[in-house]
Design a protein that fits this description.
Blueprint (H helix, E strand, L loop, with lengths): L2 H13 L4 E6 L2 E6 L25 H6 L5 E5 L4 E4 L15 E2 L4 E7 L2 E6 L4 E6 L5 E3 L4 E7 L2
Antiparallel strand pairs: 1-2, 3-10, 4-6, 4-9, 5-8, 6-7, 8-10
């Protein structure tokens, strides 16, 4: 394996959101991992910021603001994430799609085995965190759903 190629891989990993990359080529095995930075929130929600003084918010306004609960669907294992069921096929889901619990929404390839990623509840997809062919770690958020009713 060419040392220049390994250096390029290190550069790619350092600039990407992936935490680890493993490659086996011509009998050589290379594993590149970066140290995880401490997360601000375990639930995947944005950090809370200090709120404005109560005098700045009209009292009737606070009670009319409704929030829709959100849920993260996480990678069950480390592997390569695919948005479609096969090469050349359209993505299984897109942002804005309403999905039912149990619907196939992605595929993870690990050790040449394809594993189905299913919606674990009903909701509308508001974010697809990783693109097609992205390397993901077990526990990474793949989809964010707005929970249905």
């Amino acid at each position: 394996m060419d040392l220049t190629f390994v250096q390029k891989l290190i550069d790619v990993v350092s600039r990407s959101p992936i935490g680890e990359l493993q490659i086996e080529c011509d009998g050589f095995h290379v594993r590149i991992a970066k140290q995880a930075s401490p997360s601000i929130s375990q639930a995947g929600s944005p950090p809370q910021t200090a709120s404005a003084p109560s005098a700045a918010v009209p009292s009737g306004m606070a009670s009319t603001v409704a929030t829709t609960p959100r849920h993260s669907i996480r990678a069950p294992l480390t592997g390569v994430f695919y948005r479609s069921a096969g090469e050349g096929e359209p993505p299984l889901v897109s942002a804005g799609d309403l999905v039912e619990e149990g619907r196939k929404i992605g595929v993870l390839e690990a050790m040449k085995t394809f594993n189905v990623v299913e919606a674990d509840r009903t909701g509308r997809i508001v974010e697809i965190v990783f693109g097609d062919h992205a390397a993901v770690q077990s526990g990474d958020v793949l989809f964010v759903l707005e929970e249905a009713g």
